[in-house]
What we know:
By secondary structure, the protein is mostly helical. It has four helices and no strands. The protein is rod-shaped and about 95 Å long.
Amino acid sequence: MQRVLASLVVSIVAALVLASPPTADAKPKPHPTPTPTATPSPSPTATPPLPSPTPSPTPTPTAPSGYVDG
């Protein structure tokens, strides 16, 4: 019985090994698709730059006025 099971396991493993290369090729193809999906994620990251322009105007008037007064 053990030899039969061992032979079945070996045959299954061999089949998986032979079938794995095409499967591996198919898997990378879907991965590039999720990558564009990750690109939209930076959009929320672009939201923080909006607050940064707010502080910028404050120092900007201060700097020119200081130079003009000086």
